[in-house]
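Quick one: structure for this chain?
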Amino acid sequence: MYPEADLPFSPQCIAAARLQYQPVRPLQLSLMGKFTGKQQFSYIQHEAFSLPAYTQFNFSALYSGSFIGSSDFELGFYINNILGNQPLCNAWGYEAAFLSGETSYREAGYYVLAPRHYMLKFVLKI
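Got it. Here's what it folds into:
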């Protein structure tokens, strides 16, 4: 039906990079960034059915060690979406066309990226 349409939810550019720093042996710090280009969320190819490009940054700190004996552990702290921005990252939409010639009807709904959030992780290897 739309032979030259962009595939929905397939941006032409996705790029990611990570900076990693290990100030001391058991501690590892990482800063990760990801860019997602503009994308369509429908085969209709109408500007109303596209998501703008956005960039997201995450941070992590991991500490590895061992308890007395043979048990190893890992403690991790994560901050996702450091900037706290909430761009549109997912959506749905449709267009209804009428045989009577009436103006077509479009509707779309959008989902935003989660705001800044934190996670703490503890792994015990036995």
